[in-house]
TrEMBL record:
This is CBM1 domain-containing protein. One of its GO terms (cellular component) is extracellular region. Residues 250-287 are annotated as: Disordered. The lineage of its organism: Eukaryota, Fungi, Dikarya, Basidiomycota, Agaricomycotina. Keywords: Signal. It comes from Coprinopsis marcescibilis.
Amino acid sequence: MLGFSWVLLAFAATSVNAGRIVWDGSFNNYTTPADFDRWSWANQVGSYQWYIKGSGPTSRYLNVDAAYKNPAITSEQRGLKVTIDSTATWNSQMMRTELIPQTTANLGQGNLFYHFSVKRTNTNPPDPTLEHQVMFFESHFTELKYGVGSNPSNLGWYAGGQQRWSTPFSPDVWFNFAYDINFSSRTVGLWASTGGNPLTKVVENVAATTFTDSRDFHVGVLRIVNRNPPEDWYVSGVYVEEGPITTAIGSGAVPPPPPPVPTTVPPSSTVAPPPPPVSTSTPSGPLQTKFGQCGGTGYSGPTNCETGLSCVAVAPPFYYQCQ
Ligand SMILES: *[C@@H]1O[C@H](CO)[C@@H](O)[C@H](O)[C@H]1NC(C)=O
Ligand SMILES: *[C@@H]1O[C@H](CO)[C@@H](O)[C@H](O)[C@H]1NC(C)=O
């Protein structure tokens, strides 16, 4: 019965020119925050890796509920509430609550569409005076940002470090996006819509240093600078599609065909992402103090750190910090 109705759904979707889903990051398999805790480096289960987080319990940073999804996405049972607060520091003084795809699929070749939807409300709203990096690749060749640019209260789309598009980040509105990435020609464009409206292409592809190793896409939020106010972000509809793009909201996240049975056990990786490069500049002039900014796009302050500290590229090319 179930299998049959999935087949019908899949047929309905493909008949409107849908691509193939190469990774399904819906939260249908996550009914409580504890489900994210089942993943570890030694036990890599589920759709997401969960290690870029603060020191508190998972329920402080991640929560799942039907009320947290875009209601137009009928194929999803629930969405994710992503919270950052003053305890959410990870590997730096930045607040980070981020999920990473747990997959052996190669999500970095051909023409792929990274679909997701984000929302905020007026409760625990994101602070427009602080820089946020949202739904990004570790190399930051494309990402959403909030709290920066000529209109910091806009949600802005960046490719190659430049803002290409932005929209007022109004409360209680679902903003749907697809990053349109051609890993062969190394370009990225943007599709967008609100609510249940179909996606339209809002920015044609531009050159970017496209790169992913399939663990590179960060579902969640990084806030630069440690301050107290807690913030909630809502995320729904995360999936990666091989073109042509599905523009309809809600019919896209068709369950993928069952994964092939692995014939070999993949080596269990305990390797964290490599440390960022350290600046080798020779100190001269004013020195920055610990956890102060020492470089990055648009930054014009001191670029050398006090003795014993290094200028670390924590979010290159945008933010470097003395540590
Ligand atoms: C989701 O749950 C279903 C049913 O338990 C299971 O068959 C499937 O493999 C799960 N998917 C993932 C990605 O864990
Ligand atoms: C992606 O780039 C490759 C190499 O330039 C090109 O052949 C292909 O047509 C592009 N795909 C799309 C969908 O534009």
